[in-house]
Specification:
Length: 521
């Protein structure tokens, strides 16, 4: 037995010891001596992650309608397209190019098809027959004609924002002096400039969640801390319909009363479903840059998401509701599919279970019915690789036979749900519990993009170059880190007007050309 124990110990993969985040401020990054963006000696990704990337990319490439570029909200159900899924798809295609999974020509074709469709599709205030209004787009649209899918579908500010992030990413990536890539850049610019952000400021300076042609503006504005960070950054950066800086101030003014506090040993801005800590970070590199609020707290939004990730894991370890399988390497609550809306007895208590719903653990609006979504952990790889890598491996090792398939991880599973009731979706696997049957685009997208960001900052580095993202951040009051570095570079160019702005061709093209490296193999 002693020999067996020694052999097993020898097989255990060693990793660097990384101290978990502590409450309180951290030193602010400065251009002269930037703080490390990740703990020293970050873990290398095991081969599993390359397989996850390839399969997740294929979700977007295979399921998107080749005729119009619309990506389904989910698959294989595929009932309608989600404009947010399209934004993630536009981000996925360059990752496919860099990895050799598709050619640049193929990706340019697909991207042009998508952008032309959104440019040419009819907009207007009608209840049917349009794709959007005032530059905004409906949350869900028909996979074939792009029209608003059903009367319950809203014109969505945040989903338009997710689409626009993908549009601006395409504008940055396709940088060659070639007619079709120039057209991508031009159409991307047109789509972004067309969004009338101020139209949704019905209770200024905040921005409404959206609009229905039948009933008008949605009564709720984006407040607190959540995925709508990207809405305000995009609205602030608009060259045609910008909102004022007071919009960001109003947005952050709701933090203290709603979401700042200590949860599971972490002091941070809490948002219970983990997608709120991931979506904006998919495209915006918050490492070392801070707005006024975060300067006062002594951290940045990247550190905030890191703490939120640790809090999610600690919640699963403590498992206050006693769900099956929760633990150190099985965790992750976010918006995801579930088995069914039903009340069932579990461990002597009547518990509520849901179908698709926001799930999460945090200071407020938390809901947990035992459903784990792999995207909550895997898409946090850039924040806390030392806990995400083992979690991803364990999810794959223990549940992969039923949870991991053609396009990577299926959306979710619930080991505690083993009831003999009609299911909304998914299936019951004997001995495991409920397992989803669909992949969902807005859960797939962050997995692919954030692994790319972890490898070499691929999406972040390109979006740093976007003048609209830069402007949005600056008008929101962000300073420090790479923003100050870019400002210094611009100043150096401006100080010597006699110097040519273009970089010699041998050094990579013009000054506006993004510096890009292929993901590590």
């Amino acid at each position: 037995m002693l020999l067996l124990a020694a052999l097993l110990a020898g097989c255990k993969r060693e990793g660097p010891e990384v101290e978990p985040p502590r409450p309180g401020p951290i030193p602010e990054a400065v251009v002269e001596e930037p703080e490390p963006v990740k703990p020293a000696g970050p873990p290398e990704l095991p081969p599993l992650f390359r397989d996850i990337e390839k399969r997740t990319f294929q979700f977007f490439w295979d399921t998107t309608n080749e005729v119009n570029g619309l990506t389904p909200d989910r698959y294989p159900s595929r009932p309608f397209s989600s404009i947010a899924s399209v934004g993630f798809a536009l981000t996925a295609y360059p990752i496919g190019i860099e990895n050799g999974w598709v050619s640049r020509t193929q990706a340019v074709d697909r991207t042009l098809t998508t952008l032309r469709f959104f440019r040419d599709a009819k907009q207007g205030p009608q209840e049917t027959g349009t794709i959007g209004h005032k530059g905004f787009y409906y949350h869900f649209i028909d996979m074939q004609n792009g029209h608003r899918y059903e009367p319950w579908v809203e014109l969505s500010s945040v989903d338009t924002g997710l689409l626009m992030m993908g549009v601006l990413f395409a504008q940055q990536y396709y940088d060659r002096d070639e007619p079709r890539e120039q057209e991508i850049r031009d159409i991307a610019d047109e789509l972004y400039r067309n969004v009338e952000w101020t139209w949704l400021q019905v209770r200024p300076p905040l921005i409404s969640m959206g609009w229905y042609p039948e009933t008008g503006f949605i009564e709720h504005d984006w407040t607190g801390y959540d995925e709508a960070m990207l809405v305000y950054i995009l609205a602030l950066g608009s060259p045609t319909h910008p909102v004022g800086p007071e919009a960001w101030q109003a947005w952050t003014s709701t933090y203290d009363t709603e979401v700042w506090g200590t949860f599971m040993g972490q002091e941070y801005l809490s948002f219970a479903p983990h997608f709120g800590h991931q979506y904006t970070h998919t495209w915006v590199d918050f490492r070392g840059i801070r707005d006024e609020y975060m300067r006062g707290r002594g951290i940045d939004y990247f550190e905030n998401s890191r703490r939120a990730t640790y809090a999610q894991r600690q919640y699963a370890i403590e498992n206050p509701m006693g769900w099956r399988e929760y633990g150190e390497n099985v965790w992750g609550l976010t918006a995801s599919d579930g088995a069914q809306r039903t009340d069932q007895e579990y461990q002597g208590q009547v518990r509520e279970f849901r179908h698709y719903s926001a799930r999460g653990a945090g200071l407020a609006v938390a809901f947990d019915d035992g459903t784990i979504a792999p995207t909550a952990a895997v898409a946090s790889i850039a924040f806390a690789p030392e806990i995400v890598i083992p979690a991803t491996e364990e999810l794959h090792r223990r549940f992969g036979e039923h949870l991991y398939s053609s396009y990577g991880f299926l959306d979710s599973f619930n080991a505690s749900f083993q009831y003999d009731v009609p299911l909304k979706t998914g299936r019951i696997v004997p001995g495991l519990g409920w397992v989803a049957s669909d992949y969902i685009g807005i859960d797939q997208g962050p997995i692919l993009a954030m692994i790319a960001n972890y490898r070499n900052g691929f999406v972040w580095n390109l979006m740093r170059k976007s003048p609209y993202i830069q402007e949005g951040l600056k008008r929101a009051g962000f300073t420090g880190g790479w923003l100050d570095e870019l400002a210094g570079q611009e100043g150096a160019i401006g100080d010597d007007a006699a110097e040519a702005v273009e970089v010699p061709a041998a050094q990579g093209g013009t000054a506006a050309t993004p510096v890009r490296t292929a993901p590590a193999q």
